[in-house]
Amino acid sequence: MIFPHKFIGVAVIRNDRGEILIDKRRQDGLMGGLWELPGGKIEPGETVEECIKREIWEELGIEIEVGLSLIVINHIYSLFAVTSQYINAVTQRASRSPWNAMRFAGSL
Predict the structure, then answer these.
(1) What is the distance between the alpha carbons of residues 41 and 38, in angstroms, rounded to a whole number?
(2) Is 13 among the domain residues?
(3) pLDDT digit of tens for each residue in the chain (108 aa)?
(4) Which domain holds residue 36?
(5) Which one, of 105, 100, 98, 107, lies nearest residue 33 by Cα?
(6) Which of 10, 23, 77, 104 is 20 to 30 A off residue 30, Cα-Cα?
(7) Domain holding 25: CATH number?
(8) What are the distances in angstroms from CA 62 to CA 3, 38, 44, 52, 80?
(9) For 34, which DSSP code?
(10) Shortest CA distance to 87 belongs to which of 101, 73, 77?
(11) Does residue 105 lie in a domain region?
């Protein structure tokens, strides 16, 4: 069976204690209310690095510097497939989040 396929850029942002930034998905969306690593769908013509910078700024109000790629994970859900590229990122500047709840949790 062929599924719609989404390509996602994901930022791994650590604080000075090595904890990872997570944010809560909007209640009204797919998998609403669940916690996730920040990121989003790669738009046509956009690199994964551009995607991550755009998504983190739009959703969390954080300007980041994108680092090295960590891992690429492919996963098939019941109705679609996802390829997620996880990339290290460093916070450059932050403003207040427009809507997302976010916090640092655990460490790798």
Answers:
(1) 11
(2) yes
(3) 687 999 999 999 988 888 888 888 778 877 778 888 999 999 999 999 999 999 999 888 888 999 999 999 999 988 899 999 999 998 877 666 554 576 677 755
(4) 5-99
(5) 100
(6) 104
(7) 3.90.79.10
(8) 33, 11, 23, 11, 29
(9) -
(10) 73
(11) no
